[in-house]
From TrEMBL:
InterPro entries: Peptidase_S1_PA, Peptidase_S1_PA_chymotrypsin, Peptidase_S1A, Serine_Proteases_S1, Trypsin_dom, TRYPSIN_HIS. It catalyses: Preferential cleavage: Arg-|-Xaa, Lys-|-Xaa. This is trypsin. The keyword Protease applies. Pfam families: Trypsin. It comes from Amphiprion percula (Orange clownfish).
């Protein structure tokens, strides 16, 4: 997760892809001096033995278009490598030539748990969502080749927390978090219409489009 230094508050999610690198959404950007990264977190209200806290040494943003959320991805270099264990391990990057077009995926985060709420979940939660093809049917003209959609097909089980259907605009806690499909890190929580809107799927940055960019920076940055 990402925290603001001065408030100590969680504001976005992220995904470890290498011992010293985390991927998040570009709209979660803050100056590196104002960010901390916490790995191994589960309950934000308790000090847990697996937590690892890091300063940020470098941030890379990929030509982000803030008006359209296109290229909503950033790569964060931690101040030191993480200690990898059963609770902290890198996600598997996807095949750069393929993106899921159907099936069930899992999205997780500490975001708001009710429509119109400003209160984040104190514990990490996850929910299964369906890949939604032909997403332009919901967002005519706004979905680029760098985006994919997932959610519930025109219905929502209201006693299930949906972390995939996020608020358009400022981070709501789930932004920047991972969409995991068949064990691969396929998406980054990016944007949507309203909060937990059952009639509009969540929109995710399509990670497969950026595998070369991610690996090039990791392999060529001291």
């Amino acid at each position: 997760m990402l925290k603001e230094i001065f408030t100590g508050q969680h504001y976005c999610g992220g995904t470890l892809v290498h011992a010293q690198w985390v991927v998040s959404a570009a709209h979660c950007w803050r100056p590196s001096s104002k960010m901390k990264v916490v790995l191994g977190e589960h309950n934000m209200n308790e000090v847990e033995e697996y937590e690892q806290i890091f300063n940020v040494s470098k941030i890379y943003v990929h030509n982000y278009k803030y008006r359209t959320y296109d290229n909503d991805i950033m790569l964060i270099k931690l101040s030191r490598p993480a200690e990898l264990n059963a609770k902290v391990e890198p996600a598997q990057l996807p095949d750069q030539n393929n993106s899921p077009t159907s099936g069930t995926c899992t999205v997780s985060g500490w975001g708001v748990t009710q429509v119109y709420s400003y209160y984040l979940s104190p514990v990490l939660r996850a929910v299964d969502v369906q890949i939604i093809p032909r997403c332009n049917w919901y967002y005519w003209g706004r979905i680029t080749n760098n985006m994919l959609c997932a959610g519930f097909r025109l219905k929502m089980i209201y006693n299930t927390r949906s972390t995939s259907l996020i608020c358009l605009g400022d981070p709501q806690g789930d932004s920047g978090g991972p969409l995991i499909c068949n064990g691969y890190f396929e998406g980054i929580v990016s944007w949507g219409i309203s909060c937990a809107n059952p009639y509009f799927p969540g929109v995710y940055t399509k990670v497969c489009k950026y595998v070369d960019w991610i690996t090039d920076i990791i392999n060529n940055t001291a």
